[in-house]
Amino acid sequence: MDLGEGRFARASVELKVLPDTRRIRAYLRWSDGGKSPARYLGQVERETRAANLAEGWKMAWEKGLLTEEPQAEGSWASSPSVRAVMRANRSKDTRPELRLRSLLHKQGLRYRVAARPLPDLRRTADLIFSKPKVAVFVDGCFWHGCPEHLRESHKNAEFWRSKIEGNQTRDAETDRLLQEAGWTVVRVWEHEAPDAAAARVISVVRTSSADQHNSGQSESNMKR
């Protein structure tokens, strides 16, 4: 961001949810002499946090608030704006995750957040239900290659295709390793309706709990 007189600052897009209407507003924020000014960009209404951030950056460019900075050597992003969006895209506590967690909690389900189902396996699930051994992953449409919403980038296409295919291979391996260890894996796309996703998770958790209970009773009867 050009501050004038040869001064530049790194800017970021901030999203704020209005408590009464639940509408989302995008702001451009930057640092200047120890202060953090902000400029209102507009209202955003996309389905995901990543899409809303991208829309906010688009507004900032259209308003002429940003200027390109020199591309970092060896950078994987096609432009500074793309790099900023990707860096701002959270790996946890995303909006779809928070909605899902809220609905599950209201139904009385308790879970661990961002935890490893298997301590010795460096794979983290977004939610785990330890007793019924259910692991839930909320997958971003871009990073995990959603068949409905993935739009391939025209810039650095080979890099992004390789990155996404690598994520899909890792996802499949994670599912296999957890299933072999007796876990049930549930994968939720970030675009899924929260109520439908929550209902699916609840059904799996309760079915797994019932199966374990019945299995425990059968073993107890056999020992008698």
UniProtKB/TrEMBL annotation:
CDD domains: Vsr (cd00221). Keywords: DNA damage, DNA repair, Endonuclease, Hydrolase, Nuclease. InterPro entries: DNA_mismatch_endonuc_vsr, Restrct_endonuc-II-like. Pfam families: Vsr. Gene3D superfamilies: VSR Endonuclease (3.40.960.10). GO terms for molecular function: endonuclease activity. It comes from the Bacteria. NCBIfam families: vsr. Belongs to the Vsr family. This is Very short patch repair endonuclease. It comes from Streptomyces pyxinae. The lineage of its organism: Bacteria, Bacillati, Actinomycetota, Actinomycetes, Kitasatosporales.
